[in-house]
């Protein structure tokens, strides 16, 4: 069926056909432009796509080249003028370098020397023979000040029986202490001859005590003289022992009686014999007599009485000496004077 378009249903319109809507210009004609009111429906400006700007070539930095001479120049730093250094400055720099190296060497040597000295100080100290003798004398000399009187003079002393009682070698005799005297000077505690010897060799003090044997028959007064050294003590003892006469009563310690005991009447006139022994820095003198106030008589003619008195006096003296002159341990640091 034909239409006003000049075609059939379903076919395309032909050129020059009647327009489908009123006012629409025929195909191929442009629609007249309508004047636009300046205030009617203003259209927003449309964004134009950004055009890519052509990239400007970047100026290339000149590559750094080291100068032909002088100190190296670094990139980004302005070149500096360089001139050869003053020979005097170079010499001063070398001299400072030598001084620095010498200071380091001296410091290292000082540190090594200090380490060696510290090691020697920490090592056990070795003493000469003279130093050992001096330290040993000091140890001996402290005994009489440090020990109590009851330790220096024990309450009871045992000693061997005299040779006259040789029927029983295991037999021992004993003596007990009846009193301890106050400390006194050497000159007032011994006979004048012994006092001269002790004072010459530097005697510092005299300690005395009195004992009675187990049968209350004999009385013994023993005195310990304090000398400054072992050599002076040995010299003094030898000089005193050399003055002992044939009757056995030589220069010795003075008696110390104690009332209310068998030694209450013991005085210098009752002394029968005397003796002296030494060890360490001490000289121990003893004198023996009868407890019954018997006057002095030559006991050397009575072998039994002489042997028993000598055993009692020497036994007490050696016992006292064993306390005061007990062996001293070898000196070592620390713990002794000079350390």
Topology:
Elements: H1 87-122, H2 129-146, H3 149-152, E1 156-160, E2 172-180, H4 186-189, H5 192-200, E3 205-213, E4 218-226, H6 230-241, E5 271-279, E6 282-290, H7 303-324
Antiparallel strand pairs: 1-2, 2-3, 3-4, 4-6, 5-6
Throw out a few tags for this protein.
339 residues, alpha+beta, six-stranded antiparallel beta sheet, 6 strands, rod-shaped
Task: Give your account of this protein's structure.
The model is unreliable at 1-10 (pLDDT under 50). It is rod-shaped and about 145 Å long. It has a domain at 131-324. The N and C termini lie far apart (145 Å). The chain is of the alpha+beta class and 339 residues long. The chain has helices at 87-122, 129-146, 149-152, 186-189, 192-200, 230-241, 303-324; strands at 156-160, 172-180, 205-213, 218-226, 271-279, 282-290. It has a six-stranded antiparallel sheet. A hairpin with a 4-residue loop joins strand 3 (205-213) and strand 4.
Calculate Rg over CA atoms.
64 Å
Which H/E pattern describes the elements? Answer: HHHEEHHEEHEEH
Shape estimate: rod-shaped
Q: Which whole number gives the mean pLDDT?
A: 79
Gist?
The chain has 7 helices and 6 strands. With 339 residues, it is an alpha+beta fold.
